[in-house]
Structure prediction request, 249 residues.
Amino acid sequence: MTADPPALRARGLTKDFRGFRAVDGVDLTVAQGRVHALVGPNGAGKTTLFNLLTGFLPVTAGRIEVAGADVTGLAPEGFARRGVARSFQITSLFGQLTAREHVALALQSGSALAWQFWRSAKLMRRYDARAMELLDMVGLADLAETTADALAYGRKRALELALALALEPKVLLLDEPTAGMGLEDVDRTVALIAAVRQGRTVVMVEHNMSVVGALADRVTVLQAGRVLVEGAYDEVRADERVISAYLGE
Ligand code: ADP
Prediction:
């Protein structure tokens, strides 16, 4: 019996910006069903790596595989088709649309033929029903008819997550899911990620180490574009190299 291929694997991943090497030969293996955190001081290359792993930036060198298939060089849509989705940014929310309309729209855009059936009331009802399920999952059922503009910050972040979930991802990438949140929203988001990880693989860039400790099975610490340490949270946290990397931030 052969083992399942990793959900996501990067080999020798490298990104240059006009001669500046932001990501430098990164190897990363994310097993299926795991939560894997990318951490590191500012400028370590986390965002760049995240963009490479979702096809938002082309690689300078290296290879990316999703469930064993080579996806290097594909556009974000190609990654999405293979089950990789990232949380949308708040900047991509349309202020005047309600939470339900946002999720229904994301469900439609994930379906190639959906636009042909735009007027099909049956299909729209199906999208609306699924949209409500997703909003319920992220704790927004009561706010389904609220426009994005009127949602508080933490609720907007929850809506972003619902939009990513609308793509039915096998691998969900989250870019700083708790950034800028107060304690209550952080706790709510941790519980939410713990729920949505069921049946999925999650890769997240996260600064808040208590969030990493609560959720991550594996942690990769980046520094100056390279992997400094990889391991379980407790190992990584106790590692002298990690402590000095953060002290030098
Ligand atoms: P992190 O997310 O860990 O803070 P980034 O991936 O944002 O790190 O940045 C890593 C390095 O790459 C930084 O030195 C940053 O200035 C540089 N960098 C990121 N994006 C670009 C870009 N588009 N052009 C030039 N340099 C960039």
